[in-house]
Amino acid sequence: MTASYEVSMDGPQFTELLPGTRRALLHRIATAQSEGRTPSLVGAVMREGRMVWSAGRGEVAGRAPGADTQYRIGSITKSLVAVLVMRLYEEGRVDLDAPLATYLDTPEAGEATVAQLLAHTSGLAAEARGPWWERTDGALRPELADIFGERPQRHPAGRTYHYSNPGYALLGALVERLRGKPWGEVLRREVLVPLGMDRTTLLPEAPHAEGWAVHPWADALLPEPAVDTGRMAPAGQVWSTAADLCRFAAFLLDGDERVLGREAVARMRVPESGPQDPGWKFGYGLGVQLTRRNGRTLIGHTGSMPGFVATLWASPDEALAGVVLTNRTSCPGVDAAAAALVDTVARNEPRIPETWRPLGEVDSTLLELTGPWYWGAAPFALRLRADRGLELTPLSGTGRGSRFRAEDDGTWTGLDAYYAGETLTVVRNAEYAVSHLDVGTFVLTREPYEQGDAVPGGVGKAGWR
To answer: What is 251-296 written as a DSSP string?
Structure first.
């Protein structure tokens, strides 16, 4: 068998995986199912916007599961809810930095902003008031006030990252309040239907897997309950398939104007909590988890409910995603298996770079900004990108680099890491010649510690010696 490909102006675009890659992927999920002792497991890979591989192991209703078999996806539900909130933001109906109480009469977390709830920095408790909400009917908590215990606020809002399931119950209620419809109905109309996620539902629809617990010391099974969690449903209710989650992964990488634009989706992927400097391993954006594995940044979400564990990891740089779904409680290795699917394809079949093309018309005032700059004595390069964007890159191997988006007022806004949200300003002298760059108050000059009055504190008149 040979891989098929299509020819475009950008060169060959491979539409199928090579046989060696497919076998390596099958070996990975077979190992995960066997060593994880899970009744069934489905793995899938999305590349360049579509599912290019899937396989199932074990049994569901007497046959091998496939990409169309439903599993409960747990907290991947939160990413779907976050998209609904971001749609309200994109429409101008929600200010992410406004307190939740601006839009929703809530018994708790009213002072926390919408963004803090999305990023798990609201300070709310991790779990709803007992009994164990994942295994009990939502009718036990009919109102929002019923999901909170005696000490719902565990940390001051905005102080620290603390994962909160009740926080997403509030976000689901926010969607219902502003849309005037149940959040699940809004989800189907605004997200699932446009993205073609027809097998994603709030309650299971055949063919679907049953949830099981596996005895720790024997190969024996115990059925897990699959209840409707009511008010807590936005934290982990949804059922989906590997094929549908590949569609959602493609959306998380590229956006879809029918649902949410590319810029708003990109904002979801920026870490709101957790470190962003070199060496970071985990972060949380607006409803999206971020992790560093094998030198690449992955975005997506993990999820678990009694009887089920699921993971979706996607690599924006490689237009790749791996999805793994299982029907075992607390199944180890699912997170790593999904990341390994991405790594396997990336190593065996590196992405073919897009054809380089010149920018076309270039503004000479922007072109003169490019080239070497120095922060003190540290060398950087400034490059001009599409849409008047700039990219600052350290030339010494270490340093604070960032991409910058052009603004209408003639400044640029940082998009990455340390300079995310910070302003780059071109400072000109009385003759309108470029004097220096101001990047979040840091001064970059054309020469190392250039003479003149640009560098705060001055530069020794005797110069280098």
So the answer is: HHHH-BTTTB-HHHHHHHTS-SBS--STT--EEE-SS-EEEEETTE
